[in-house]
């Protein structure tokens, strides 16, 4: 371990032939998997060394050639279990930090992100290879990605924070991949997202999850997902409940989801009915909502915009006329 660590930290540039030979040995001896599988059993200093070694191996790119680093290519085609074992490191608070640090580097690669999203193997079973991924097949909800919900909600503060960091990177870094994934797994994903994360007893988890939800919905790549989401009356009700939460930051993050419903030019009948039935209450509530945020001009403008949109609602719901170019435009508040 000390030899490998020393080489990667000190001789990466000065001894490229030796480093390449060492890298080949690591791959040949399946050391990446052994380190990932055993990291939770190692003492503290050894875990730190393992974190450093594996991170360097993932970055290692001889001659800075095109394409993915060779370790990434090896993992996705031959040994995806390396990544799945690193994810399972969140099950032990002693290994969570080291595994999160390695995964933060790994999930910069879209193919690594795809492995985590689409793997449905059980422990000790072969993980999914990149070429075997079927993006159109809905998930069962038993794969490694779905365990992040539990790690975030039920883990210790440190484990929850580290797991959420990787969870957020997975959902925001690789936009086309995630848009396809969310479309294929819409009901399962948002069902768990609301039930576990939005309704979490943890203030930090709840607030961060609401904020992330807003980011997902407002990302243009997720347009189809967003339009489906804001058609739901149940989602609107859940969001309106957030506006009345006792904690101001939960209210604030909830507002940024609520505004997507109101700004939608083609509101579903269910959404219209809820807004119409609550029109008078909303028109009284919104002007005073978080009124102490006097230095936030954009927030003030957005509130005024939503008030105008609610005032303009018809007396009865009407069938929406959907257009491929129509989308909620909360930026209109600044006009």
UniProtKB/TrEMBL annotation:
UniProt protein name: Conidiophore development protein hymA
Lineage of producing organism: Eukaryota, Fungi, Dikarya, Ascomycota, Pezizomycotina
Family: Belongs to the Mo25 family.
GO CC list: cytoplasm
GO BP: intracellular signal transduction
GO molecular function: protein serine/threonine kinase activator activity
Annotated source species: Talaromyces amestolkiae
Pfam families in UniProt: Mo25
PANTHER family for the chain: CALCIUM-BINDING PROTEIN 39-RELATED, PROTEIN MO25
């Amino acid at each position: 371990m000390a030899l490998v660590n020393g080489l990667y930290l000190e001789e990466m540039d000065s001894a490229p032939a030796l480093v390449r030979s060492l890298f080949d040995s690591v791959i040949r001896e399946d050391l990446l998997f052994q380190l990932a599988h055993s990291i939770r059993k190692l003492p503290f200093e050894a875990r730190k060394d393992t974190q450093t070694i594996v991170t360097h191996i993932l970055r290692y790119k001889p001659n800075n050639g095109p394409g993915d680093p060779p370790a990434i290519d090896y993992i996705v085609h031959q040994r995806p279990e390396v990544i799945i074992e690193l994810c399972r490191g969140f099950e032990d608070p002693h290994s969570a930090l080291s595994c999160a640090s390695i995964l933060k580097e790994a999930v910069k690669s879209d193919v690594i992100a795809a492995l985590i999203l689409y793997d449905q193997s059980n422990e000790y079973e072969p993980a999914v290879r990149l070429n075997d991924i079927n993006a159109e097949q809905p998930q069962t909800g038993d794969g490694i990605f779905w365990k992040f919900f539990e790690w975030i909600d039920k883990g210790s503060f440190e484990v929850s924070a580290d797991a959420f960091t990787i969870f957020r990177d997975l959902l925001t870094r690789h936009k086309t991949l995630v848009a396809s994934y969310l479309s294929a797994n819409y009901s399962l994903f948002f069902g768990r997202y609301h039930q576990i994360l939005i309704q979490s007893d943890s203030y930090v988890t709840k607030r961060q999850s609401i904020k992330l939800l807003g980011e997902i919905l407002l990302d243009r790549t997720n347009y189809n997902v967003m339009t489906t989401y804001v058609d739901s009356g149940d989602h609107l009700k859940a969001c309106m409940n957030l506006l009345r939460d006792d904690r101001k930051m939960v209210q604030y993050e909830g507002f940024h989801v609520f505004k997507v419903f109101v700004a939608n030019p083609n509101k579903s009948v269910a959404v219209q009915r809820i807004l119409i039935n609550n029109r008078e209450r909303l028109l009284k509530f919104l002007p005073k909502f978080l009124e102490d945020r006097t230095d936030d001009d954009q927030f003030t403008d957005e509130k005024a915009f939503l008030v105008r949109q609610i005032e303009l609602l018809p007396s009865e719901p009407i069938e929406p006329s959907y257009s491929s170019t129509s989308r909620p435009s909360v930026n209109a508040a600044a006009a």
